[in-house]
Design a protein that fits this description.
Blueprint: H1 16-49, E1 56-59, E2 67-70, E3 73-76, H2 81-87, E4 92-95, H3 103-115, E5 122-127, H4 130-140, E6 147-153, H5 161-173, H6 175-181, H7 187-191, H8 194-203, E7 211-217, H9 230-240, H10 249-252, E8 256-261, H11 277-290
Parallel strand pairs: 1-4, 1-5, 5-6, 6-7, 7-8
Antiparallel strand pairs: 2-3
């Protein structure tokens, strides 16, 4: 005898809407899990891509240093920047050159430092006079073979009236002569004058194959400026318009202008509570990576 077929399961008509709702909910749950997993994978990718392709070299400005140690205390010129970039997986190298030497002498030391780095190419980020050292080393000392990009921050590419006034007053007071007598190199102060920089720009052209860009510091209000820079900020504003307390904004422009920030000359390297410099450099890394550097 044939086995009797299983009895048919009868679904009451009023249950169909609930069954359809459960089916839709199940499909939605599966799609949500798939979407969340895809989003999680995408969330990790920027962390791997945040650092640029090449190591970063930080170059300091006039009277600068890489780091200072006094007892157990340590201070970086680019305050808090190396630690912040290190968390993003970026290899950071900090160069030290003579604080008050000429651009040519400082550039020679910078070139030697960069050439000793075990990397095919590097990105250079230079503050203030460091940007001029970098330009000279790239154009005149063959560093264009090693540098993929140069970003200058607060650099006096066309000089600064402050250097004009300072060297004139120091010369009249005999200060420069006295410093030279005790073997203090003060050529940096002359090199930053508007006249010297006019000659410099004619003799140091940009190199092909190197991407030049800049970040311009130009706070609008005195209350956004470090107290020590307020007098020079006000004087420069009358003499040359917007500035960062040391360098006119127009003098800071060279290559692509990545950003204009309300940061004075000290705040640009982390020496102010008014501005988050470390975050600025982290954003700069993302910009360099996006541009293929």
């Amino acid at each position: 005898m044939r086995a009797a077929p299983p009895p048919a399961v009868l679904v009451p008509p009023h249950a169909w809407p609930w069954i359809a709702a459960l089916a839709v909910a199940a499909v939605a749950a599966v799609l949500l899990v798939v979407w969340l997993r895809a989003r999680a994978r995408r969330a990790f990718r920027p962390l791997r891509r945040r650092a640029p392709r090449h190591p970063l070299v930080l170059a300091h400005g006039l009277l600068g240093f890489d780091e200072l140690r006094v007892g157990g205390a340590r201070a970086d010129y680019f305050r808090g920047v190396s630690a912040r970039l290190g968390r993003d997986g970026c290899a950071v190298h900090r160069c030290r050159v003579a604080p008050t030497a000429s651009i040519a002498a400082r550039a020679s030391a910078l070139a030697a430092f960069v050439n000793a780095i075990d990397a095919r190419r590097v990105n250079l980020v230079a503050h203030s006079m460091g940007g001029l050292d970098a330009r000279y080393a790239i154009a005149r000392l063959g560093l264009d073979r090693k540098v993929a990009s140069l970003v200058t921050i607060g650099t006096p590419h066309r000089g600064t009236p402050l250097a004009d006034a300072a060297t004139s007053l120091a010369a009249r007071a005999g200060l420069l002569f006295a410093l030279r007598r005790v073997n203090v190199d003060v050529e940096a102060f002359h090199d930053l004058t508007t006249a010297r920089m006019d000659d410099f720009n004619g003799a140091v052209p940009d190199s092909r194959g190197v991407h030049y860009a800049c970040i311009v510091g130009a706070p609008e209000r005195k209350r956004d400026v470090s107290p020590i820079l307020v007098p020079t900020f006000a004087w420069l504003r009358d003499a040359a318009g917007g500035n960062d307390g040391m360098v006119p904004a127009e003098s800071q422009r060279w290559g692509d202008v990545i950003r204009v920030v309300p940061a004075d000359h000290f705040a640009q390297i982390g020496w102010s509570r008014r501005f988050d410099a470390a975050e600025l450099y982290a954003e700069l890394l993302a910009e360099l990576r996006a541009r293929g550097f």
